[in-house]
Specification:
alpha+beta
């Protein structure tokens, strides 16, 4: 959906907006001179019961991981300036079907360091039990993986936290990323050096060699997890 010339917003059939949703997002963009803005989100079940789904400042981790319930499930929650289209490769949109708003948010924020403003208003409602007709070509999970691949090499070297506003979680993640690979690497090198001093085909040498192989396997599995994360 296009909003006068310089702004645009997408929408799914399983969402609806309060009367001031658009004007609130426009005002947030103008006030913070940002490239986009997002609103707080309510979830509504089949019995019309509403609950707060997301009402907080988003983080890069939330945009990247899109883990329920810290994600942006409907596109109408976010409005973008038309300028945002300049940062999104045209070929990429042909690979998406319903998660375009996530791709825009990820590229703008993670790769190009463009900020999205928070309206601080709860003006969007997600009817989560109503099936959306989008994601008919590629399911949402695969689209999110595709988007992660686009920005994986733009992530901070220390990684990003999956949850919002938790300094302790962020610090623990950084410590893990910095220390675990180093510790495992030291173990691998140690056992490789010890193994080289024995005949790996018999007795104690064979046991030491098997220990080295276990340490090497553990290290490789750890590195695979970190790369995928």
């Amino acid at each position: 959906m296009l909003i006068p010339e310089k702004l645009f917003i997408n929408t799914h059939e399983n969402e609806f907006w309060f009367y001031d949703h658009i004007t609130t997002l426009i005002r947030s963009i103008e006030d913070e001179q940002s490239i986009g803005a997002y609103a707080g989100l309510l979830s509504e079940d089949a019995e019309k019961m509403r609950r707060t789904y997301l009402f907080d400042r988003l983080t890069q981790g939330q945009i990247y991981y899109q883990n329920h319930p810290k994600n942006t499930p409907v596109p109408g929650q976010i409005m973008f300036c038309a300028e945002a289209e300049e940062y999104v490769p045209e070929y990429m949109l042909g690979c998406l079907d319903g998660e375009e708003h996530v791709a825009y948010s990820a590229l703008l924020w993670i790769r190009y360091h463009k900020q999205l403003a928070f309206s601080k208003r709860m003006t969007c409602v997600w009817e989560y039990e109503r099936k959306s007709l989008t994601c008919s070509v590629m399911d949402a999970t695969r689209q999110i993986r595709f988007i992660r691949g686009l920005v994986r090499y733009d992530l901070p070297s220390t990684g990003i936290a999956a949850e919002t506003g938790n300094a302790e979680s962020t610090r623990s993640r950084r410590e893990f990323l910095l220390t675990m690979p180093l510790m495992q690497s030291i173990n691998v090198r140690l056992w490789r050096k010890i193994s080289s001093r024995f005949n790996k085909k018999t007795g104690l040498g064979k046991a030491v060699y098997n220990k080295y192989q276990k340490q090497l396997k553990k290290y490789n599995e750890l590195m695979t997890v970190l790369r995928e994360d």
